[in-house]
Amino acid sequence: MLTIHDFQQARLTRDPRFDGRFFIAVRSTGIFCRPICPAKLPREENVEYFTLAQQAMLAGYRPCLRCRPDSAPHSHAWNGVDTTVNRALSLLSENLHLSMTSIAEKLGISDRYLRQLFLQHIGLSPKQYQVYEQILFAKQLLQHTQLPIEHIADAAGFNDARRLQYNMQRVMRRTPKELRKKPTSNMQPIVIPLAYRPPYNWSHIRDFLARRAIPGTEAIDKNSYARNFTLGASKGHFHALHQADKNRFHVTLTLDDLTQLKPALNNIRRILDVDADSVTIDNQIQQSGLDPKLITPGIRIPGIWNTFEAGCRAILGQQISVAAAINLVTKLVANLGETVPDEQCQQIELTRFFPTPEAVANSDLSFLGMPNSRRETLRRFAAFYTQHPDAPPNEWLSIKGIGPWTVAYANLRGQSHADIWLDSDLVIKKQLTLHSIDANKVSPWRSYLTFTLWSQA
């Protein structure tokens, strides 16, 4: 947990490693900023600190138009404080259109208890948090894209431009038109910066993804990663260009349903793991006893677009090499993946989407050169997923042919859980014979220890 002294030192040095972990509000101006804001440093007696942007907004402060707090890396400051609160924060951030009743139902608690938890741990109601999240997202779209205001209102969950304008004026004291700097255009793509806290080991995540990239669906070069994706009934494409000098990715995205824009961006954040606090994680890995020379600063979890794709990759990769597994995944996509229409194709080499669970479940998979028992496992898994798309991977253990390793892999890369320790993995087992490690001392960041050991193989 950061102290006031940490806040002060990070503010005075504009340390990018603390970007998004807290915000600085200036009483004399009524504005709050990121620690990296290039504006003249205010006096300490004029400063107030907040761990969430929404807390600063509740206190009456407006986000800085120069450093743009809405573009800061997300923070996991509430991890370990209350699991339900942390899950609620994620749901509210990812689902700007959901009611509080729906959020409470997903959490398995009552509306009243959800409100009590938020007031106790955060100091504002869940509805207030959601509205501020909507405003920050709308502000980001207004300042970084050319989307019409009506489309931005829809994407941010306000349903119409009048509600957006009312809330923007109430909190920002400016209208959407006053915030907009770029001319309006109906043209996609959408361009959004995704900032991260350094260090960020791009070469590790790039090379890991490159070895496992699906031709026709994913593309990777020296400085970027791109892929086609589906999100519910919507389809899209993104290209993420790494800009190391700016500690961010420059993301270009097309999407046929703007109500899914926030979930799509959140998923891109997860795949690239831009919100990880690498300094804290690297320090924790050192507690394991691993030789510090083997710890690569800024290692991240390379994600997979969703748990279905992660499950398919894990099943197809059972007991074979990475190259052989990708060959099977490539055949699966080539035979069952929907083709991208020519007019929607954003990169000439990206022509297919990953197959749907229905397509896999209804195929005999005879084109896959592997034991029939594994084909049947894949079909059973796809059929299960079709009926239970929101079931956590742990429930897959009821499917014949799926064991703990497959579930752990899906949790690790399909959901980017931070504390997955794959000690049953053959590569990890070999590494453990070479190094004396106490993985429990790395909790809750054992996923990063898993990738650290994989990188040594």
TrEMBL record:
Keywords, comma-separated and alphabetical: Activator, DNA damage, DNA repair, Methyltransferase, Transcription, Transcription regulation, Transferase
GO cellular component, one term: cytoplasm
Residue ranges annotated for the HTH araC/xylS-type domain, each copy included: 82-182
Cofactor(s) annotated in UniProt: Zn(2+)
GO terms, biological process: base-excision repair, AP site formation; DNA alkylation repair; methylation
UniProt-recorded Gene Ontology molecular function terms: alkylated DNA binding; DNA-3-methyladenine glycosylase activity; DNA-7-methylguanine glycosylase activity; DNA-binding transcription factor activity; methyltransferase activity; sequence-specific DNA binding; zinc ion binding
Protein name: Putative bifunctional transcriptional activator/DNA repair enzyme AlkA
Species assigned in the record: Paraglaciecola mesophila
Lineage summary: Bacteria, Pseudomonadati, Pseudomonadota, Gammaproteobacteria, Alteromonadales
